[in-house]
Specification:
Strand order of the largest sheet: 1-6
Oligomer: single chain
Number of strands: 8
Shape: globular
Order of helices and strands: HEHEEHEEHEHHHEE
Distance between the termini: 49 Å
Number of domains: 1
């Protein structure tokens, strides 16, 4: 089995099975669209989640950043920073391996989450943050249950919730105003 495909499959499963565990989305964030029916809400979630399947992802360079160069970051080659002097003893430890695995998972999840986010946004959905009280109620429902989905739909289709709890849109150059506000 192709290891890259396995990582992508695991990350996609993580996004769909339990979005709260994904690195690209906080557990207190959700998406909603005022007045959307429950059936349309579920259909849109499924369609946007399916769009992330098969997306080509690429691992960003891993290692300590040497310096910021304009919009990018110059990275010291691993061959340099993984060796010691005297004797140039190479370092390859479980700390490095686990760090790389974590970085790979975060990269994949963030890239897949961007696909889902852009799909939902294009369909008129907006992100909102659940309050502490709403999170307490949500924790009472097991992930994937009909009750949990109905609760999130009820919040996400309520215009008052969306207006008062809107989250600023993520942009590559920083944050923009919340949806519907300029």
């Amino acid at each position: 089995m192709n290891p890259r495909l396995a990582v992508v499959g695991f990350a996609l499963f993580s996004l769909v099975a339990n979005p709260a565990l994904a690195a690209g989305k906080r557990s207190d964030e959700s998406w909603g669209r005022e007045g959307v029916s429950f059936d349309q809400y579920r259909a849109d979630a499924l369609e946007c989640g399916n769009r992330a399947y098969g997306v080509e992802v690429a691992m960003r360079p891993y290692g300590p950043a040497a310096a910021s160069v304009g919009a990018g970051v110059a990275v010291i080659p691993a061959a340099v920073w993984t060796s010691l002097t005297p004797g140039r003893v190479p370092i390859y430890s479980t700390t490095y391996v686990e760090g790389y695995r974590h970085a790979a998972r975060v990269d994949v999840v963030e890239q897949l989450q961007e696909v889902v986010d852009s799909c939902l946004s294009a369909r008129g959905y907006q992100r909102f943050r659940l309050t502490r009280a709403q999170m307490r109620v949500l924790r009472g429902f097991a992930p994937g249950t009909a009750e949990r989905q109905a609760y999130l739909h009820r919040l996400g289709s309520d215009g008052r919730v969306l207006q008062s709890q809107a989250i600023a849109e993520r942009r590559s150059g920083g944050l923009a105003a919340p949806a519907g506000q300029s």
